[in-house]
Amino acid sequence: MPRFYKSFSQQTAFYHPNEMKTIYYFVSLLALFALTNKYVRSLMHWGSSQGVRGVGSEASPNNTFSSIKTESVHIKKPEVKKVVGSEASPNNTFPSIKTESVHIKKPEVKKVVGSEASLNKTFSSIETESEHIKKTKVKKVVDFAIIGFPKCSTTFLRNSLINTPQIFYGNDDSEIHLNEFKNKKEFVKLYENVSDPEIKKGFKCPEVLYSESTLSIIENHFPSTDFIVSVRNPVLWFQTFYNYRLRRGYNMPHPNDLIGKCASKGRIKGEGVLDQTNRNRVYDSHKVCTDRANFHLALSRLGKTPMNTEEEMGLLHNHNLSVHRFPNRVFLMELGQLSVENRTRSDLFVEDLGSFLHLNSVEDQISSHALPRLEPHVATHNVATTVNGTRLNEKLLDICSPSHDALRSILLKTGRDASNWIMKYFINSPDVIVSDREHFLTLMKTWEDDPCTQK
Questions:
Q1: Start-to-end Cα distance in the chain
Q2: What are the tens digits of pLDDT across the range 47-69?
Q3: Fold category of 144-258+287-454 in CATH
């Protein structure tokens, strides 16, 4: 018998045995209740303390900087800073960065980048990153970018018109593809030798508005870079782009097989696309298709219009593409504005473009702008003579041929929707600039008519 019960029984020997048994049971129940209560309380205390620790210690250690969606400029709570710094990935690449260092304004955020950064980073590299953030905050990386669209004279703009001693493009190549750079510093190196503040830095990348990854890069790292966008009649664009591919030696599918979305290496969203002339062969559209003629859908991704009415969304085909609310200014032009038939008008266009780029005047150039006077544009190509044994002239597309009426009708509808949306919504944004608005509107209205009936 336990000592407690033995001692108790000796002190209460005068009680009847049945009474003693009842007392023993009662005391045992009290003891059991006390122990149970104490145990439950300790469990509750342990569970609550573990729950608090779980928020921090059990947070995923592999969370990368790219997955953090909170923008540094909006950080207010101290505890959020730790997430931005301590969870930062040392291997973050340029395309995956989602937090915009350019917008960092609070001095304390610098500590987040340095002291809270991944342990795999060295102190020297952390300091370099902090200094780089301060530098990009004060100064633009690039002043302007020619971002659209393919076969809309973007090469002419880059190599002939917007090409003076006051312009630096970073490389000798015609285009720069942002998503090919490992990180932002690698891109910035292209311009590091430009110290003259009068020199305007730019690049050409006509695929920007088609690429989600490139749009994200620009949104996060180039918020003050001005955009230059050139558009043209979708019917004529399709014919020009298709024939351009042929001249460069591409084996193109039949034009009527390019209605709809573009096929890349024979696949559209995981589904094989068969050439109608040979159902055993899967083709590549080489980025030529009627879907890419929807310039207005691509432009809407810049977030310059409300996109909150049935009318506007109807013109935009109710697309579900991502929309980024860019603060960047946009200089929009129609290809016909590069015509030199009216010298007064063409000189005004060049002057307006130079003013948009904030270029200073040069003595030997016209008026008060630094851009050269427009000259007749003659396209040059590395022309192939045959494609897969067929003479090139036999394969070149004549969009006005009756055999392409179905294709042309789709492009005509695209042109009408694009023209209406651009005129009614896009150019009414305060961020969108056009030269000679009246002439621009006249050119846009021609998209509503079949160019084949005007020959």
A1: 117
A2: 444 443 333 333 333 333 233 33
A3: Rossmann fold (3.40.50)
